[in-house]
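User: I'm writing a short methods note and want a consistent example. For Reactive intermediate/imine deaminase, I'll paste the sequence; you return only the structure tokens, no commentary, since I'll be parsing the reply automatically.
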Amino acid sequence: MKKIINTEKAPSPVGPYNQSVMAGNTLYVSGQIALDPSSGELITSDIETETHQVMKNLTAVLEAADMTFDNIVKCSVFVADMEMYSRINAVYAEYFDEDTAPARELVEVANLPKYVNVEISVIAVK
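Assistant:
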């Protein structure tokens, strides 16, 4: 059975999806972009700030499911420009212990929602 988990501390879904779905002990978190949940504004002043906002949004969804970044087993990172890889990766690394970091792919895509530079989705397990 699945349980829908949404929080006001992360951006509201803008379509027919939820922020996350718990199936058994596994949480599937929809891709997060750098929307400020309180203002609805995009935070895109620079790629580091944008990536931190994405990670804050992920944190909020994880917390709503009583989880943390330690529960993440898989991340999917989508970037608009592979030239930003090292800068995104530097911020990303602040949220994980390298020895226990999750599996991950990072791919460049033609476009992302609202033409942001980075979107990240995760799978976490209790």
